[in-house]
Amino acid sequence: MFTGLPREMLAFFAALRFNNNRAFFEENRAIYERFVRRPLLELAEALAPVVREIDPDVDVRPQRAVSRIYRDLRFRRDKTPYREYMWIGFRHPGESREETCGFYFDVSADEANWGCGYYHMQAEFMQNLRARIVTQSRRVERIVTDPAFAAEFSLMGPAYQRQHAPPPGLCAPLAKLYRKKTVYAEHHVTDFERLFSPALADDIASGFRTLAPFYALLRECMVRTGKETKL
Questions:
Q1: N or C: which end of the chain has fewer CB within 10 A?
Q2: Which of 65, 69, 68 is nearest to 49 (CA)?
Q3: Tens of pLDDT, residues 90-101
Q4: In the beta sheet, which residues pair with residue 59?
Q5: Is the whole-model pTM more than 0.90?
Protein backbone atom coordinates (compact mmCIF):
# COMPACT_ATOMS: atom_id res chain seq x y z
CA MET A 1 0.00 0.00 0.00
CA PHE A 2 1.32 3.42 -0.95
CA THR A 3 1.77 5.71 2.08
CA GLY A 4 3.72 8.54 0.47
CA LEU A 5 7.31 8.85 -0.64
CA PRO A 6 9.77 8.71 2.25
CA ARG A 7 12.03 11.66 2.93
CA GLU A 8 14.90 9.18 2.94
CA MET A 9 14.38 8.78 -0.83
CA LEU A 10 15.33 12.39 -1.51
CA ALA A 11 18.22 12.17 0.94
CA PHE A 12 19.52 9.10 -0.88
CA PHE A 13 19.42 10.87 -4.26
CA ALA A 14 21.21 13.90 -2.76
CA ALA A 15 23.94 11.72 -1.27
CA LEU A 16 24.31 9.75 -4.51
CA ARG A 17 24.95 12.99 -6.37
CA PHE A 18 28.21 13.37 -4.46
CA ASN A 19 29.05 9.68 -4.13
CA ASN A 20 28.12 8.17 -7.48
CA ASN A 21 30.23 5.06 -7.24
CA ARG A 22 29.77 1.36 -6.67
CA ALA A 23 31.25 1.32 -3.16
CA PHE A 24 28.73 3.90 -1.89
CA PHE A 25 25.81 2.19 -3.59
CA GLU A 26 26.64 -1.25 -2.26
CA GLU A 27 27.07 0.17 1.23
CA ASN A 28 23.63 1.79 0.95
CA ARG A 29 21.83 -0.84 -1.13
CA ALA A 30 19.43 -1.67 1.70
CA ILE A 31 18.44 2.01 1.95
CA TYR A 32 17.88 2.12 -1.82
CA GLU A 33 15.70 -1.00 -1.78
CA ARG A 34 13.62 0.13 1.22
CA PHE A 35 13.29 3.87 0.67
CA VAL A 36 13.59 4.27 -3.10
CA ARG A 37 12.63 1.23 -5.13
CA ARG A 38 9.92 -0.19 -2.86
CA PRO A 39 7.92 3.07 -2.51
CA LEU A 40 8.09 3.63 -6.28
CA LEU A 41 6.78 0.11 -6.87
CA GLU A 42 3.94 0.83 -4.44
CA LEU A 43 3.14 4.12 -6.19
CA ALA A 44 3.16 2.39 -9.59
CA GLU A 45 0.73 -0.21 -8.24
CA ALA A 46 -1.53 2.55 -6.88
CA LEU A 47 -1.57 4.31 -10.26
CA ALA A 48 -2.16 1.16 -12.31
CA PRO A 49 -6.00 1.22 -12.12
CA VAL A 50 -6.36 4.75 -13.52
CA VAL A 51 -3.84 4.03 -16.28
CA ARG A 52 -5.73 0.88 -17.28
CA GLU A 53 -8.98 2.85 -17.10
CA ILE A 54 -7.58 5.29 -19.67
CA ASP A 55 -5.83 2.72 -21.86
CA PRO A 56 -6.42 -1.01 -21.21
CA ASP A 57 -3.49 -1.96 -23.46
CA VAL A 58 -0.83 -0.39 -21.25
CA ASP A 59 1.55 -2.67 -19.35
CA VAL A 60 0.97 -1.61 -15.73
CA ARG A 61 3.15 -4.19 -13.97
CA PRO A 62 5.12 -2.20 -11.38
CA GLN A 63 8.35 -4.07 -12.09
CA ARG A 64 8.11 -2.96 -15.72
CA ALA A 65 6.97 0.57 -14.93
CA VAL A 66 9.67 1.54 -12.42
CA SER A 67 12.98 2.52 -13.99
CA ARG A 68 16.35 1.02 -13.23
CA ILE A 69 18.82 3.09 -11.28
CA TYR A 70 21.73 1.65 -13.23
CA ARG A 71 22.84 3.72 -16.21
CA ASP A 72 23.77 2.25 -19.60
CA LEU A 73 27.40 3.35 -19.97
CA ARG A 74 28.18 1.81 -23.34
CA PHE A 75 27.87 5.00 -25.39
CA ARG A 76 28.41 7.65 -22.72
CA ARG A 77 31.42 9.76 -21.90
CA ASP A 78 30.07 10.23 -18.39
CA LYS A 79 30.80 6.90 -16.70
CA THR A 80 29.04 7.52 -13.39
CA PRO A 81 27.19 4.22 -12.88
CA TYR A 82 23.90 5.32 -11.30
CA ARG A 83 21.07 7.68 -12.13
CA GLU A 84 20.47 10.40 -9.56
CA TYR A 85 16.73 10.23 -10.18
CA MET A 86 14.16 7.57 -11.05
CA TRP A 87 10.81 7.44 -12.78
CA ILE A 88 7.66 5.45 -13.28
CA GLY A 89 6.69 5.10 -16.93
CA PHE A 90 3.63 3.32 -18.33
CA ARG A 91 3.71 2.23 -21.98
CA HIS A 92 2.41 -0.43 -24.33
CA PRO A 93 4.24 -3.78 -24.44
CA GLY A 94 6.93 -3.85 -27.10
CA GLU A 95 7.34 -0.06 -27.28
CA SER A 96 10.66 1.44 -26.29
CA ARG A 97 10.87 4.36 -23.87
CA GLU A 98 12.54 6.43 -26.58
CA GLU A 99 9.65 6.11 -29.03
CA THR A 100 6.45 5.66 -27.09
CA CYS A 101 3.84 8.05 -25.78
CA GLY A 102 3.03 7.26 -22.17
CA PHE A 103 2.22 8.48 -18.68
CA TYR A 104 5.06 9.11 -16.24
CA PHE A 105 6.18 10.35 -12.83
CA ASP A 106 9.80 11.25 -12.04
CA VAL A 107 11.58 12.28 -8.87
CA SER A 108 15.05 13.40 -7.80
CA ALA A 109 16.52 15.12 -4.76
CA ASP A 110 15.14 18.50 -5.76
CA GLU A 111 12.50 17.95 -8.45
CA ALA A 112 9.38 15.90 -9.18
CA ASN A 113 7.04 15.92 -12.17
CA TRP A 114 4.24 13.96 -13.76
CA GLY A 115 2.62 14.05 -17.16
CA CYS A 116 2.38 12.29 -20.48
CA GLY A 117 3.94 12.53 -23.90
CA TYR A 118 7.02 11.45 -25.78
CA TYR A 119 10.56 11.13 -24.50
CA HIS A 120 11.69 11.38 -28.12
CA MET A 121 8.87 11.94 -30.57
CA GLN A 122 9.44 10.46 -34.00
CA ALA A 123 9.37 13.07 -36.77
CA GLU A 124 6.55 11.28 -38.58
CA PHE A 125 4.42 11.26 -35.41
CA MET A 126 4.89 15.00 -34.98
CA GLN A 127 3.97 15.50 -38.63
CA ASN A 128 0.76 13.55 -37.97
CA LEU A 129 0.03 15.84 -35.04
CA ARG A 130 0.56 18.91 -37.23
CA ALA A 131 -1.94 17.51 -39.70
CA ARG A 132 -4.50 17.09 -36.91
CA ILE A 133 -3.83 20.62 -35.67
CA VAL A 134 -4.93 21.83 -39.11
CA THR A 135 -7.77 19.40 -39.87
CA GLN A 136 -9.11 19.04 -36.30
CA SER A 137 -8.18 22.46 -34.95
CA ARG A 138 -11.30 22.86 -32.80
CA ARG A 139 -10.76 19.51 -31.12
CA VAL A 140 -7.06 20.14 -30.45
CA GLU A 141 -7.76 23.64 -29.19
CA ARG A 142 -10.39 22.33 -26.77
CA ILE A 143 -7.86 19.86 -25.39
CA VAL A 144 -4.95 22.22 -24.82
CA THR A 145 -7.03 25.18 -23.62
CA ASP A 146 -9.28 23.19 -21.30
CA PRO A 147 -9.16 25.07 -17.97
CA ALA A 148 -8.29 21.95 -15.94
CA PHE A 149 -5.51 21.03 -18.37
CA ALA A 150 -4.10 24.56 -18.57
CA ALA A 151 -4.17 25.00 -14.79
CA GLU A 152 -2.10 21.90 -14.10
CA PHE A 153 0.04 21.22 -17.17
CA SER A 154 2.49 23.01 -19.43
CA LEU A 155 3.24 21.91 -22.98
CA MET A 156 6.94 21.14 -23.05
CA GLY A 157 9.49 20.20 -25.69
CA PRO A 158 11.89 22.04 -28.02
CA ALA A 159 10.52 23.96 -31.00
CA TYR A 160 11.75 24.82 -34.47
CA GLN A 161 12.63 28.47 -34.98
CA ARG A 162 12.32 28.57 -38.77
CA GLN A 163 10.93 25.25 -39.94
CA HIS A 164 7.27 24.32 -39.81
CA ALA A 165 5.80 27.80 -39.77
CA PRO A 166 2.14 27.45 -38.68
CA PRO A 167 -0.48 28.17 -41.33
CA PRO A 168 -2.47 31.40 -41.00
CA GLY A 169 -5.52 31.41 -38.77
CA LEU A 170 -4.32 29.15 -35.96
CA CYS A 171 -4.82 30.44 -32.45
CA ALA A 172 -1.66 31.14 -30.43
CA PRO A 173 -1.62 27.85 -28.44
CA LEU A 174 -1.99 25.77 -31.61
CA ALA A 175 0.61 27.83 -33.48
CA LYS A 176 3.06 27.21 -30.65
CA LEU A 177 2.26 23.50 -30.62
CA TYR A 178 2.63 23.32 -34.41
CA ARG A 179 6.32 24.30 -34.21
CA LYS A 180 7.26 21.64 -31.68
CA LYS A 181 9.93 19.03 -32.47
CA THR A 182 8.58 16.81 -29.72
CA VAL A 183 5.89 17.41 -27.14
CA TYR A 184 4.82 16.37 -23.69
CA ALA A 185 2.51 17.84 -21.06
CA GLU A 186 4.04 18.13 -17.61
CA HIS A 187 3.07 19.16 -14.11
CA HIS A 188 5.98 20.39 -12.01
CA VAL A 189 5.63 19.75 -8.27
CA THR A 190 6.02 22.90 -6.21
CA ASP A 191 4.72 21.61 -2.86
CA PHE A 192 7.26 18.96 -1.87
CA GLU A 193 5.36 18.14 1.32
CA ARG A 194 2.69 16.62 -0.92
CA LEU A 195 5.24 14.00 -2.03
CA PHE A 196 5.32 12.56 1.47
CA SER A 197 1.56 12.07 1.68
CA PRO A 198 -0.55 9.10 0.51
CA ALA A 199 -2.60 11.74 -1.34
CA LEU A 200 0.22 12.00 -3.90
CA ALA A 201 -1.21 8.95 -5.69
CA ASP A 202 -4.63 10.64 -5.89
CA ASP A 203 -3.06 13.86 -7.21
CA ILE A 204 -1.24 12.00 -9.98
CA ALA A 205 -4.28 9.85 -10.82
CA SER A 206 -6.44 12.97 -11.13
CA GLY A 207 -3.80 14.54 -13.37
CA PHE A 208 -3.69 11.46 -15.58
CA ARG A 209 -7.46 11.63 -16.03
CA THR A 210 -7.16 15.29 -17.03
CA LEU A 211 -4.51 14.27 -19.56
CA ALA A 212 -6.60 11.47 -21.09
CA PRO A 213 -7.85 13.46 -24.16
CA PHE A 214 -4.33 14.76 -24.84
CA TYR A 215 -2.92 11.25 -24.47
CA ALA A 216 -5.54 9.87 -26.89
CA LEU A 217 -4.63 12.57 -29.43
CA LEU A 218 -0.92 11.73 -29.24
CA ARG A 219 -1.55 7.99 -29.49
CA GLU A 220 -3.54 8.57 -32.67
CA CYS A 221 -0.44 10.14 -34.19
CA MET A 222 1.61 6.96 -33.78
CA VAL A 223 1.10 5.85 -37.36
CA ARG A 224 3.63 4.00 -39.50
CA THR A 225 3.19 2.55 -42.99
CA GLY A 226 -0.55 3.09 -42.86
CA LYS A 227 -1.08 1.23 -39.59
CA GLU A 228 -2.44 3.17 -36.65
CA THR A 229 -1.77 2.33 -33.03
CA LYS A 230 -5.04 1.54 -31.31
CA LEU A 231 -6.10 2.53 -27.83
A1: N
A2: 65
A3: 999 988 777 789
A4: 91
A5: yes
